[in-house]
Design a protein that fits this description.
alpha+beta, Trna Endonuclease, Chain: A, domain 1, four-stranded mixed β-sheet, two-stranded antiparallel ribbon, globular
Length: 152
């Protein structure tokens, strides 16, 4: 979605649902299968229908030659503590996860991730994996940073 300002195009921030729809369209174009968990309006407000331990489950699960878990955010929204707990669980299980926040560069950033055939791994995780270590420390630090931002 764009608007024109004196001949210049300016991106307009989409709603959460619009941003998810854009990501789903992109992922389908790149050959991904997707599970999407949307909120539903009830008499008690907006909730995501989920059972068991599902509180905070991430918005998208994408599958091709690898599995990606993604939480989608439109500023000023931030990840909840429950969402960050799921991210920690995914890291502990060796899974790839992202918090995709809308910005003017979102298309390039997410396209780069979805085009790869191998998971994105921080440099220190690659080094740890080559040395036979678990490789979770870098992502755990990233989750800690997200938690600090969430608490702020």
């Amino acid at each position: 979605m764009t608007t024109r300002t004196r001949g210049l195009k300016r991106l307009v921030m989409p709603s959460h649902a619009e941003f998810i729809d854009q990501i789903v369209q992109l992922a389908h174009l790149l050959g991904w299968s997707i599970a999407l968990f949307r909120k539903a309006r009830t008499k008690h407000g907006w909730v995501t229908p989920v059972g068991a331990d599902g509180k905070g489950w991430l918005d998208l699960v994408l599958e091709r030659e690898r599995l990606i878990f993604a939480e989608v955010k439109v500023p000023p929204d931030k990840a909840t503590p429950e969402q960050l707990e799921w991210c920690e669980r995914h890291v502990a299980a060796g899974q790839e996860w992202y918090i995709w926040t809308w910005s003017e560069r979102w298309l390039d950033q997410i396209t780069e991730i979805l085009r790869r055939r191998e998971p994105d791994r921080p440099a220190e995780e690659k080094r740890d994996a080559q040395a036979g270590a678990s490789g979770i420390r870098g992502l755990s630090r990233q989750i800690s940073n997200e938690r600090a931002a969430c608490d702020a």
